[in-house]
Amino acid sequence: MATAIDAAQVTYEAPDLDVMEKFLTAFGMTKAAGSDDQTLYMRGTGTQHHIHVTRKADRQRFGGASIEVASFDDLVELAAKPGSSPVQESTEPGGGHQVSMAMPDGVIIRAIWGREKAEPIADREPIAMNNIRDKNRVNSSVRVSVAPCTIARLGHFVLHVRNHDESMAWLNERFNFLPSDYFVPPGEQGPIVGTFVRLDLGEQLVDHHFMLVLQSDWVGVHHSAFEVTDMDAVMSSHDYLLQEGYSLDVGVGRHMLGSQVFDYWKDPFGFRIEHYTDGDTVDSGYRPTKFNGTASETTQWGNRPPLEFFQ
User: Fold this and answer.
1) Per-residue pLDDT tens for 269-285?
2) Which residues form the VOC domain (predicted)?
């Protein structure tokens, strides 16, 4: 199976690229080279050429996600799977090669390799925290403005599917994903209706989850999530987005599964998008658990999502 090494991008369609660019800039992204009046490419401070793509269309919809793999041979292997495209040269800025695949419900997953890396954008250092035992900040004060934060990278995305088991079998046949935690119905021990998956990079630390696959009566994206520098970035950006009149969804709070401090917003076309920081990191030795609570119980503290949050 192919070795996935990074969440490369999420792709959307929307009728107004200027409106989307204004929001994503306020959210903390930067317009990337190659954007034009038909496609908007937005990047973070990291080395992915772009992490969020919007193509101009008459209506809004989710256009799929792209996963970076370790080698060209991974693309060749994926291209041999049923329903895959041949290995193709990418037409997106940064070049490289790709294989396009459709999950059982039709969600498009692209594997990419060889895309040109971007020069990182300088960002401030994370603010050192003074806890009751460790005084990490000495002779230095915290001074943070209410302003857009800086997005570092795409961390994960969440998909709704009609058949969880079929979708997981499809993913596991193609990529080196490992389960991190499972959703089961509230108060029960099964069946599994959601799986958090992570990258398998051996002893290298990876995020608790790279993707969440959820059983649902509809198909599409629940949200895409972008990592920021620290808690002050989450909070100062929260105030800025409120000040600019954007639509808060749920936040700020701390997740149970993955431990991230989160803040969910709605973009101007109704797509849910998340700032997060301070998530768990694990290696290949981590063993999954089962969570059988409600959506509201997925939050340890803070603004709790409504019961219908994952529906």
Assistant:
1) 999 999 999 999 999 99
2) 6-114, 153-278
| Residues pairing with 31 in the sheet | 42
Q: Which CATH number fits domain 4-117+147-302: 1.10.3720.10, 3.20.20.10, 3.10.180.10, 3.40.50.2300?
A: 3.10.180.10
pLDDT band of residue 65 (cuts 50, 70, 90) is very high
Digit-coded pLDDT (tens) for 15-44: 999 999 999 999 999 999 999 999 999 999
Q: Is 90 helix (H, G, I), strand (E, B) or coil?
A: coil
122's CB contacts (< 8 A; 6+ apart) are 45
Q: What was the pLDDT predicted at 157?
A: 98
- Which of 3, 25, 23 is CA-nearest to residue 14? 23
Sign of CA pseudo-dihedral 272, 283, 81, 115: positive
Residue 311 — pLDDT band, cuts 50, 70, 90? confident
10-41 burial code (b ≥16 CB/10 A, e <16): bbbbbeebeebbebbebbbbbebeebeeebbb
Residue in the structure block whose two tokens are 């290949």 = 284
Mean pLDDT of the chain: 97
Q: Which residue has the tokens 């290298």?
A: 204
Buried b (16+ CB within 10 A) or exposed e, 228-265: bbbbbbbbbbbebbeeeebeebbbbbbbebbebbbbbb
Rounded-to-integer distance, Cα 102 and Cα 7, Å: 17
The domain locations on the chain are 4-117+147-302
Torsion angle of C-alpha atoms 70, 76, 80, 81, degrees rounded to 10: 20
Q: Are 252 and 299 in contact (CB under 8 A)?
A: no
